[in-house]
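Q: Structure tokens for this one, please.
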Amino acid sequence: MEVNEYVTSEKQVSFFRFQDLRVYGKTIDFIEWINNVMESFPGREQNWLGKKLLESGNNIALYLAEGSARNKQQFIYYLKMARTSLRECVVYLDIAEKTGYIPDIQKAAGIQQLMELTRMLGAMANSINKMTDDD
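A: Here is the predicted structure, written as tokens:
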């Protein structure tokens, strides 16, 4: 797969390259989903669990942004860091579901988004690896 496959179909290219990555757009969608989910958390948990979940979601986007400005090997490193933050989100969703702050169906929706992001990040890292091998 080419890295270009992760670019949105819009013809206008953003000044910041990471904004054109589909995986970045999906991450922003996931962050919006987190903000909506946090509304159902009790006040105390919004301050702890919700903030941790949101921070991990934000870190996925931040690692994409930072990595896109680096060389190929460093970008791969940042993609791995994004996947680490993604796994943190899974843990926080498990806690939220186990403690009854979100229902199973809502957790499943979040996990589905995280699975898609995992696949996209992995495919992007593999694509960049192949490009690095060809250099």
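A few notes: The chain has one domain: 17-134. The mean pLDDT is 90.
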